[in-house]
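Reviewers of the previous submission asked for a worked example of the structure-prediction workflow described in the proposal, so we include one complete record here. The input consisted solely of the amino acid sequence. No template or homolog information was supplied to the procedure at any stage.
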Amino acid sequence: MNSPANRPKVIIIGGGFGGLAAARALKNAPVDITLIDRTNHHLFQPLLYQVATGGLSPTEISAPIRSILKDQRNVAVLMADVCSVDRAAKQVSLVNHAPIAYDFLIVATGGRHHYFGHPEWEALAPGLKTIEDANRARQRFLGAFEAAEKAETDAERKEWLTFVVVGGGPTGCELAGVLPEIARKALAGEYRRFKPSDTRIVLIENSAHVLDNFPDDLRVYATADLKHLGVEVIPLRKAADIQPDHVMLDDGTRIPCRTVFWAAGNRAGPICATLGAEQDRTGRVVVTPFLHLPDDTSVFVIGDAAHVRWLGDGTVPGVAPAARQMGECAGTNIERLLAGITHLKEFSYIDKGSMAVLGRNKAIVAAGRLHFHGVIAWLMWLFVHILYLAGYRNRLLVLLEWAYAYVTYRRGVRYLIKERID
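From that input alone, the workflow returned the following structure tokens.
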């Protein structure tokens, strides 16, 4: 990069929305940036559920990090696993690589699934955070229908045709809402020993309502839409046990099933624990309003890894716009520190609204006092998600896939990799 050896070194851990925003915010800063990610691609996580259900290909919702940052000459991309951070030595330790020193560090590692003390459930109830997660979920989803075709008894077939989604947030509702359409439209007439329309979809939510963070009127619309689609919504219940052939609820109800999807909670990545800083109950690092550690202005934590106060007792939600805004704020504050400016920019989250899609022509959108549902909200959801995708190629391909699916009800990515499904 032909840069002086004494330029400050900035390390960014994570190539998600927050990490990329931070790198771009430092585009003109006199620093050398190393962006470290365990994969070589940036992933648009909000559409992972469509990969899991065969609607989109992984390549259509991801883009190479190096390609995204190729024109930013002060950034080097390193594909590696970070194992820990040594704040005393100001070093980041990597797997099978020498430690890397930093002058400033931005932790943007995102989060993983939170199984609330039951890590053994992950093998039986995959969540959706990575492409590997989505591929695994697609294997289980499509494989369940293949197993149902081979089932010897009606009881066994019914278990394979029952799908349980744990968690009634946006991911859980979007996943539960798309499953009935696939079963009853995309797969219609393809099997000989059963009718895909006999598929049962169960959505379990710990709260009294699904989409608990949305306004009351939109929650009512969402619940009605899900039920109209054929989803059984079970509120005020938790999963007490998950086994290969059933889910047990905390009230003793046993749901025979072979396929479970997890969308009930998130937890910050393990790197956060190595910072030696205060963490909340989900592992997020408690930071100052300026996004750095209370006792260390050289370490910033952003995105799903950060606990940032918002609206009194609340915290900034773990959504893509928030991560982007945090990345921009962290980059700005590092520039100010480099310039000797002690007055840093306080992070102020600009809530651009929330949205969730529930099925064909069914969605809800909350934008301040404006609430939308139905076709208008669905079109808004389509536009925003196309806009946020990285690269014109991905936007065009996803738009074409959605248009094809809308007209034909078909899913374009229904391949199964050879794997045991029983």
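DSSP finds ten helices and 27 strands in the chain. We consider this example representative of the routine output the project will generate in years two and three.
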